[in-house]
Amino acid sequence: MPKQKTHSGAKKRFKITGSGKLKKQQAGMRHNLEHKSSRQTRRLNQDQVLSKADTKVANKLLGRG
Prior knowledge:
Helix content: 25-40%
CATH class: Few Secondary Structures
Distance between the termini: 16 Å
Order of helices and strands: HEEHEH
Shape: elongated
């Protein structure tokens, strides 16, 4: 049986931490930034750890069991 290919969109979107968790960029930092407060843009610019339910799906896309 052939190997499973890694989902090329997923591998660009997620980073794996040392402990095995998945990090992602938060939504809302692409446009309309002049209407958002500096405080909000700083918060949105930080990476966020994926929720447990999303991690299960993302791991499957990344070929991690």
